[in-house]
Here is the input.
Amino acid sequence: MPKSRIRKKDDFSPPSEKKATQIDLGRGSGGRRWVAPLMLAMFGIGLAWIVVFYVTDSSLPIDALGNWNIVVGFGFIATGFVVSTQWK
Here is the structure.
């Protein structure tokens, strides 16, 4: 029976050092530091608009809009979601 070849193992070489990657948090060009505050502001305004509408029995924030105040509140919230798509 033929003898199998002996494979020679490579000498151990330690892996090269990896450098930590820098994460740009909006400090460079094209930064979008405005996205998170604007998104949260839109969510807050929309929620506050709807809560004020319900708490005041439809007399505030704008009496002439009536039940359309709910749509306005959800519009602010939807705008917050649209703005959130710009967040990187």
